[in-house]
Write a structure and sequence with these properties.
By secondary structure, this protein is mainly beta. It is built from two helices and five strands, in the order ββαβαββ. It has a five-stranded antiparallel beta sheet with strand order 1-2-5-4-3. The protein is flat. The model has no long low-confidence stretch (mean pLDDT about 90). This is Mercuric reductase.
Length: about 80
């Protein structure tokens, strides 16, 4: 509005692909984290261990967390699930 040029940083913008199964993510992948100089730890949680998925009887999918090694700072989250 003031005429100044600005750039947007889409780095933290969540993203989703509406397919079957649906794919959603926010933040960095493990490959991106390593490329940016982070030492990272990743954990994958199958939906069969998520109580809500068990109640819905929809355990096909997974959640992947990418965290900075040492601090545990969350760098990225990725989900693949039917979402039905």
């Amino acid at each position: 509005l003031d005429g100044a040029e600005r750039t947007l940083d889409y780095h933290h913008l969540p993203r989703v692909t509406f397919t079957t199964p649906a794919i959603a993510a926010a933040g960095l992948t493990d490959a991106q984290a390593v490329a940016q100089g982070f030492a990272c730890d990743c954990r994958i949680l199958p939906l069969e261990y998520v109580p809500r998925a068990l109640v819905n009887r929809d355990t096909h999918g997974l959640i992947k967390l990418v965290a900075e090694r040492g601090t545990g700072k969350l760098l990225g989250v990725h989900v693949i699930a039917d979402g039905g």
